[in-house]
């Protein structure tokens, strides 16, 4: 897989290092009796951009939520930055500092202003001096194109603006990996574009990204690899052109025909 | 009128005053009091009730009331209304109980300083709030020495405490301590640590399942059996503890309600940013949960404050207890209405202030996220 990823990276002019960012080996997860993730094996190189798709209930959100331990896995191994995720709180907090996450419903803190949302974690977790944190936050708000909203509360912004703030909030922690959990699913069509633009920009800057999304245009444009999941398993993974033009399994073909022919 | 009907070129029309009937008092009266036949009838009935109630009340409370008299009989000779003379004569007793007269300035000072200590807590726009907060932190110590003596001040025993001073002391202590304890209990009840969770649930359910009077009785009598012989444990201190624990159990449930109303996404976002448990609670979850819980918390505080009158049952002389003593005086026999009305007014002012403050706080904390 690394060969494919490396070749693909060269094709798109984005550098992928040989360094491993995330390694998932034989990972299983159950919700009570229900076996949600079955034998997940996945290696992500630093700088790689992976799009994960699949029908709802296929376990794709659960899988990326295991990477920063918002969900606990019960068997197998997950290594992030060569640190294994176990019950060790110190390791978990360390990994969460390095892994940013963007949620479907933004999850901004409604009682804090946009700027405070962005500076909170750097100040309290990274111990950045306040002035420095504010300065950095403004740079990221600039990058997601909403510096003028810094003093507003999240409730006063549109959905697309809120999601861009959420991205800026994650970036303020200088993460090495970004996880996106259906970032555009709760947005109106014209707002999807503004969020995707920001994500494309981020991909071009070389960020390691894992995106659960059904935006196939986005996948074609920036992904090195597209992963298709169903029933808690990784059914198929390939570089985008191959994945879309020449899907291997019947399940993938059916899924693609359902989402592409509308 | 001429210029109001005049024609203007497009884009040059000046702002005209709206017609009188659609603004001001007339509009308000028409829309709010006489908008429909039902509304009109209700308005008229209400006006009639006001007419029935208020003039006699005014007469009794103010116009025909007697302020200066030496006994009830004298009052009755002077006027047909309320005999406020009893309150006037016994005022200081209703306020301080049996606190030594020459030391009452200490109570007054503690009371005034209470407001100085409260201001930085209640309002965030006051100048030098940081210094104010430091004073607030030390206020309990200052108040303790002022009220009970020590550090060069003449000691006063708790048994001398009484009247509204006692009400305020128990009320303020209970309110100040029950909120943090209640929050910790609420967090404990939601904890993943099973033992901690079980302890918190048992505590909350036990306290809530028992009447406050029972707890006060336990405080005044039963506790002696449990403590090693010879330990002296001030009765008022025991009351503080019981009242605080009682209110804390209720606060815990109110706060738990608030915590459950916070979407799970808030916790996840905070965790994903690397915040640890206490920072997540202190910076993200509790500020939102407490805001939602304000009405319930203030409700509990008001309940606690009024429940302080129950201490009369274990022999402490709060205003109700003193009123019984005053009414036993042959000079003032039968004037219970006046005394109780006075006590009611005092409680109403305190509780209504808390209620208004809570509304102010809710408005201030509203950040427009419920669009």
Q: Please count the beta strands of chain B (DSSP E, at least 2 residues each).
A: 0
- DSSP strand content of chain B: under 5%
**Count, helices of chain B:** 15
**Strands of the largest sheet of chain A, in order across it?**
6-7-8-3-9-10
Which regions of chain B contain 5 or more consecutive residues with pLDDT less than 50?
none
- Specify the biggest β-sheet of chain B: none
Q: Biggest β-sheet of chain A: count, sense, barrel? A: 6 strands, mixed
Shape of chain A: globular
Biggest interface pair, counts: A-B, 28 and 24 residues
Cα-atom radius of gyration of chain A: 18 Å
Features:
heterodimer, A: 262 residues, alpha/beta, 6-stranded mixed β-sheet, 4-stranded antiparallel β-sheet, 10 strands, 24% strand, B: 371 residues, mainly alpha, 15 helices, 0% strand
Structural description of this entry:
The complex is a heterodimer of chains A (262) and B (371). Chain A has a 6-stranded mixed β-sheet with strand order 6-7-8-3-9-10, sandwiched between helices. A 4-stranded antiparallel β-sheet of chain A has the order 2-1-4-5, covered by helices on one side. Chain A is built from 10 helices and 10 strands. With 262 residues, chain A is α/β, with parallel strands linked by helices. Chain B has 15 helices and no strands. In chain B, helix 8 (163-189) packs antiparallel against helix 13. Chain B is globular. The mean pLDDT of chain B is 88. Classes of the chains: A alpha/beta (262), B mainly alpha (371).
